[in-house]
């Protein structure tokens, strides 16, 4: 019998949990998340932030994106790399950006060379996640996209802040077992808590 994959079991469970939230809970959560982010000096000082467009019950970042635009920050979104399988490119996202749907059904800006923002130019990256623990360990959708893309930068002493964002119900009660390729989050931000990497 095949050994059940613990990480995939966790993914199934926590994707179900976040998809079960009502529209009202989702809306409240993203407003609370915005308040949490606004209280962080790293966000206040950031000039370039990477967000994402939510899918599959993920916490919605649109209020944060609007806040960042209002404050004159550059907002980027992840785009699936056209040649480098499993990697992401961060692309400048404007109110009038031309969008297209990627193979996962997620909207992303149409790739335009002049809109590409190198990872080293980002000040804060907000990453989506499926589950997290109280030492700021992250479990994603299973594609390894963020791990692969951010691996080179996390080896350097650059001030980039990598934050996971999630609903409170995505927290695992016992710790997540991390794999050698999992990149550590500096913080996990939820509507009611901020967990820091220990
Ligand atoms: N909103 C959002 N954008 C994101 C991510 C994410 O997790 N959330 N990603 C984070 O890395 C990257 C895309 N990675 C993804 C990996 C798997 C699936 C997904 O839905 N998988 C389905 C199978 C879909 C299929 O194969 O057609 C599944 O597992 O059920 C989605 C996004 C970049 N953009
Ligand atoms: N830096 C890397 N180099 C090569 N392969 C990697 C790297 N990081 C992750 N992977 C591969 O990606 C696969 C998925 O990794 P993992 O389960 O940690 O993804 P995830 O963090 O849940 O997904 P995502 O970041 O897309 O949300 C693993 O099989 C792993 O071998």
TrEMBL record:
Positions of ATP binding: 7-11, 138-146
Obligatory cofactor(s): Mg(2+)
Task: Kindly state which keywords UniProt assigns to this record, in alphabetical order.
Answer: ATP-binding, Ligase, Magnesium, Metal-binding, Nucleotide-binding
Alphabetized Pfam families for the sequence: 5-FTHF_cyc-lig
Enumerate the GO terms in the molecular function aspect: 5-formyltetrahydrofolate cyclo-ligase activity; ATP binding; metal ion binding
A single BP term in Gene Ontology: tetrahydrofolate interconversion
Tell me which Gene3D superfamilies the record gives. Answer: NagB/RpiA/CoA transferase-like (3.40.50.10420)
Transmembrane domains' residue ranges: none
Q: Which reaction does it catalyse?
A: (6S)-5-formyl-5,6,7,8-tetrahydrofolate + ATP = (6R)-5,10-methenyltetrahydrofolate + ADP + phosphate
Q: Which InterPro entries match?
A: FTHF_cligase, FTHF_cligase-like_sf, NagB/RpiA_transferase-like
Binding, substrate: 53, 58
EC number of this enzyme: 6.3.3.2
Which PANTHER family does the protein's record reference?
5-FORMYLTETRAHYDROFOLATE CYCLO-LIGASE, ATPASE INHIBITOR/5-FORMYLTETRAHYDROFOLATE CYCLO-LIGASE
The family this protein is said to belong to: Belongs to the 5-formyltetrahydrofolate cyclo-ligase family.
The name this protein goes by in its record: 5-formyltetrahydrofolate cyclo-ligase
* Source species of the chain: Paraglaciecola mesophila KMM 241
């Amino acid at each position: 019998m095949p050994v059940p994959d613990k990480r995939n079991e966790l993914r199934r469970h926590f994707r179900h949990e976040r998809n079960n939230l009502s529209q009202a809970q989702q809306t409240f959560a993203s407003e609370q998340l915005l308040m949490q982010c606004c209280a962080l000096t790293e966000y206040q000082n950031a000039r370039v932030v990477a967000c994402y467009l939510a899918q599959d019950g993920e916490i919605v970042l649109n209020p944060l994106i609007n806040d960042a635009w209002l404050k004159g920050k550059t907002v980027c979104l992840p785009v699936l790399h056209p040649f480098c399988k499993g990697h992401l490119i961060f692309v400048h996202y404007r109110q009038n950006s031309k969008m297209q749907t990627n193979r996962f059904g997620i909207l992303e800006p149409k790739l335009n060379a002049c809109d590409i923002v190198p990872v080293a130019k980002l000040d804060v990256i907000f990453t989506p996640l499926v589950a997290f623990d109280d030492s700021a360990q992250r479990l994603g959708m299973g594609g390894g996209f963020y791990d692969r893309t951010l691996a080179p930068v996390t080896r350097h002493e650059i001030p980039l802040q990598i934050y996971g964002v999630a609903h409170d119900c995505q927290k695992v009660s016992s710790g997540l077992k991390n794999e050698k390729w999992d990149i550590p989050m500096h913080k996990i931000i939820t509507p009611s808590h901020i967990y820091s990497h220990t």
